[in-house]
Amino acid sequence: MHTKTMEGLIGARTNMEMLNTPFRVFKEARLKGDTAMMERAMGYMNECEEDAYEYKEVADEGMKKDAEETRKIAEKQREEMIENRREEREEQQKKLEEKREENKNDKIVDTVEISEDGKVLLKENTAAGSDAVDGVETDVADLDGETSGKPKADLEPVFYSGAGTVEQSENTGMKVSASV
């Protein structure tokens, strides 16, 4: 609270309480019929009332200054919050760009492990379309429709780029495993 506000409120309250004394004297003078004393008491009451209104104006000025200071503080806090959010957003964008750069250079390798039950089902489903050589299944046909004749266990994994083209496999540090 601003000092002018406190000064105005205290001064107005004090002068309003001081009105009680001349008002009491006015009542006593009226009962006695003493008009001169009544006029003096009314003069004191008017002075106290004027002082109370002056202090009220001081309190109003103090309240306006309080409101201005509060507005300035609120505006400053808003600007700080906006600046903090802007900085946080910039940091997040930098981190996101760094992650994107890391992900551009990394190739994702997926490894699939087939469970024993899955292997049995695979043998049952592919038995009609594959040849067995010495107990090792061989690839029947590749994408071109030609058989490679290589045992499936010796085939290299195939890697595809984002465009869908086959790329040479490189040993990368990132691997994803899935079990069926």
Secondary-structure content class: mainly alpha
Low-confidence stretches: 132-147
Helix percent band: 55-70%
Using DSSP, what is the number of strands?
6
Distance between the termini: 72 Å
Radius of gyration: 47 Å
Task: Report the β-strand fraction as a percent range.
Answer: 5-15%
The major β-sheet equals: 2 strands, parallel
Shape, per Cα inertia axes = rod-shaped
**Lateral arrangement of strands in the main beta sheet:** 1-6
pLDDT average, as an integer?
A: 78
How many H/I helices? 4
Run of helices and strands: HHHEHEEEEE
Could you explain the architecture of this structure?
- It is a single chain.
- This protein has 180 residues and is mostly helical.
- It is 62% helix and 10% strand.
- The protein has a two-stranded parallel ribbon with strand order 1-6.
- Helix 1 (3-18) runs antiparallel to helix 3 and helix 2 (20-32) packs antiparallel against helix 3.
- It is rod-shaped and about 130 Å long.
- The model is unreliable at 132-147 (pLDDT under 50).
Write the layout of secondary structure elements.
Elements: H1 3-18, H2 20-32, H3 35-105, E1 109-113, H4 116-126, E2 132-133, E3 136-137, E4 159-160, E5 166-167, E6 175-179
Parallel strand pairs: 1-6
Antiparallel strand pairs: 2-3, 4-5
Which labels suit this protein?
two-stranded antiparallel sheet, 6 strands, about 60% helix, rod-shaped, mainly alpha, about 180 residues
Short description:
This protein is mainly alpha-helical and 180 residues long. Helices cover 62% and strands 10% of the residues.
